[in-house]
Input
Amino acid sequence: MSMRINTEGIKAGMELAEPILNCYGQTLLNSGVILNTKHIRILKTWNIYNVTVKTEGNEQHDTNLPSDEIIQICRNSLVKKIDWIPELSIEEDLFNTAVLNNALNYGENE
Output
């Protein structure tokens, strides 16, 4: 099993379930890597906000991620605010980062 967690929740010794790519599609860390403090520092430097790590059994975890509903609300709100449609993959990454940032802060400034 695996779970997606916020970078702030990473602990040394966790194993990556999926490779981590930067915004250019380059692999920063491969799946199967056992994370250490150096890896965690690299992820934060590259502004990686979430990773997928392996877990044991069928346990449920609080991932600190917003629900799909909140993400969709923030996506719709951002689309209404800007008159722009991402065309390049880097633009899509920027848009998705803005959506996730808004979703993580949803409700704080209302």
